[in-house]
Amino acid sequence: MATVYTKADCISSLQKAAQKLEKSPTQAEYRELNLSPCVTHICDIVGGWNKAKEAAGVETYDQVGEAYDHVPYHPDSSGYERWVHTYEGEQSEVSVHRLLAVSEFGFDAVVDKQIHHKKPIPWLNTPDNIIALTKRQHLALHILMEDFEVMIE
Fold first, then answer.
1. Is the pLDDT of residue 58 over 70?
2. What is the pLDDT of residue 75?
3. DSSP element (H, E) containing 49
4. Which residues does residue 131 pair with via DSSP β-bridges, in sequence order?
5. What is the pLDDT of residue 12?
6. Cβ(24)–Cβ(51) below 8 Å
7. Which residues, including other chains, have CB under 8 Å from residue 42's CB and lie 6 or more apart?
8. How would CATH label the architecture of 73-145?
9. What are the domain boundaries of the chain?
10. Angle at CA 138, nearest 5°, toward 136 and 143?
11. Orientation of helix 39-46 relative to helix 7-21, angle to 10°
């Protein structure tokens, strides 16, 4: 029969770990102590590692650190979502649908391609709504769809 742990068991075990280590344990350090309940059970029962540490009166740490900021997304003027990030004073951005395409098709399949939304909804970033096309294919598709005017001079 499987052991059933309580929130009190989780808190007590975290306090023991902190006492043994003489500091707040990371998940890896806690695992090395071979205490019960395990990290997974603690997170499930208490609602996360830092929540469990707070309940046990043990110091929590910033998971990301001060070297990084969060990566907010911003829609551009056409409604396409972009992630904007600043690292060491330099700002970069990438479209969410492009990241999705890399995830779905792989970097090599996307590197020289444009990512097209099959349904013309710029924020609908789902695997079944994107396709990787060459610039020429993408232009031809939009001409067929007649959704913009092509200026020929």
1. yes
2. 78
3. helix 49-55
4. 116
5. 95
6. no
7. 10, 13, 14, 49, 52
8. Alpha-Beta Complex (3.90)
9. 7-55, 73-145
10. 95
11. 130
